[in-house]
Amino acid sequence: MVGVAAALLALQLIPAEAFKPRLPRTAAALEGTPRMFQVLRLEPEQDALFVARSQTSSRLEIIGWSGAHEGDLRLPAAAGPLNPGWGVLQSPSGARFIDGTLLLDITGATEDLGRLVDASRVAGFTWRDDSEGACAVRDDGGGASSLVEFFFNPHLATSASFPLPAGFGFGDQTGPRVLACNRARRIVVVGLVGLDHSARVVVLDLVTGEELGRRSYPAGSAAGLVGSPDGRLLALDAGPDLSVGPAGPTVVLELDTDQVLLNLGSDLAVRGFSADGQAVVVSSPFQPGATVLRVADGRNLYRDTSDRVLLGWISRPHGHDFALAFGSREGNSCTRGEPGKFPQFCRYAPLQSLEIISGDSGKMRQFGLGAGAWGYRVN
Fold first, then answer.
1. How far apart are the C-alpha atoms of 370 and 61, rounded to whole Å?
2. What CA–CA distance (Å, rounded) separates 327 from 223?
3. Which has the closest alpha carbon to 88: 173, 177, 200?
4. Integer CA distances (angstroms), 186 to 181, 192, 196, in order
């Protein structure tokens, strides 16, 4: 993700264009009795992590954010090997996870979300901040798209939708994607990156679909977008594109004011924000390791300088801790890369080193090896 560092152009807040949202409709309830799977939790905490100790495991281990083993989830036979499906598997709290389009709840119930929507037309699946729902973008064809919100009530999954504003459909761009789905603030943030590295972001009312604000970023601004779970912060990520040239530097800014809080240059990418937006995990696509930074002042809270590669991450709800998964490359599997042109590709060891990073002190706690349960997959 090497790019030419350049100052971003002055970014203007574009007044929201009024549009008449279509009121959400609740989909019909799923038919049939949900299949059950075994849940065994020894010392429950409010939040937890799911860890697969092998690539073909039929169970997930429940790990508290203290790093202690708390129990197991035994998957239904129909689930098969973990499949990232729509994206991040585990909900923020660890109460639910997705295997393909199969929703598995900590209560033991399972539901097939593919019955609610056509999975092939849905992208950008993002958990809601309270783990009680999720948001995604549906391709309606003809350049139109809709925001779909899923509701995960016990033993019942439903959905509702409203149309996205014009200009946020699927076409010649890398999007649209849900950047934040936040019930506490009642907003959803949707972003779109164009082939010329321009970007657009719209903020909508999560219930009515009313447009609350919109921002536009000029060509050359970013190759990717990352939003904080609370919808307050936005990262414009640098990235190479051989056809139109590199994007600008990676920056973290406040979405409401466009104030730049961090300028990370052209060699780092934002991987994820903490739940409260106070910390951010970054890494380079060309160098191993990862760093956790404090957003307010850029202070380095944690840095891994080993030859391991960051493969997975998840933030702890209502705080600024991270769980990170580092993979070790198998040296004899690597292709020969060319800096700035073609990256080096390597196979990684089947299991990753799993670590919890404190967003206060930067202290690291290891909790062994695992794979799969945070929505990443190694080659």
1. 9
2. 25
3. 177
4. 8, 21, 32
Strand boundaries in 198-350, DSSP class E: 199-205, 211-217, 224-227, 233-237, 250-254, 260-265, 269-273, 279-283, 290-294, 300-304, 309-315, 322-327
Q: Do residues 120 and 130 touch, judged by C-beta distance below 8 A?
A: no
Contacts of 146 (CB under 8 A, 6+ apart): 137, 138, 140, 161, 162, 163, 164
The amino acid that residue 284 corresponds to is S
pLDDT score recorded for residue 161: 94
Which is more confident, 84 or 229?
A: 229
Q: Rounded to two decimals, what is the model's pTM?
A: 0.83
Rounded Cα distance between 245 and 304, Å, is: 30
> How far from each other are the two terminal CA atoms of the chain, in whole angstroms?
20
Using an 8 Å Cβ cutoff, are 191 and 270 in contact?
Answer: no
Q: How far is CA 322 from CA 298, 337, 357, 358, in A?
A: 17, 30, 5, 7
And the tokens for 349? 């060891």
User: Which of the residue ranges 235-244, 253-262, 307-316 would you say has the lowest mean pLDDT?
Assistant: 235-244
Q: Tell me the Ramachandran region of residue 343: left when phi exceeds 0, alpha when psi lies from -120 to 50, beta otherwise.
A: beta
Angle at 81 between CA 79 and CA 84, to 5 degrees: 90
Instruction: Return the structure tokens found at 63.
Output: 């790990």
CA-wise closest residue to 176 among 148, 211, 152, 150: 148
Tell me the β-bridge partners of 150. 134, 159
pLDDT tens per residue, range 55-75: 777 788 888 888 888 888 887
Under 8 Å between Cβ of 241 and 223: yes
DSSP, collapsed to helix, strand or coil, labels residue 115 as: helix
DSSP string, 64-111: ETTS-EEEEEEPPTTT-S---TTS--B-TTSSEEEETTEEEETTSBEE
pLDDT tens by residue, 233-245:
999 998 765 455 6
**Residues 343, 72: Cα–Cα separation, whole Å:** 38
Distance CA 115, CA 96 (A): 18
Q: Are 8 and 266 in contact (CB under 8 A)?
A: no
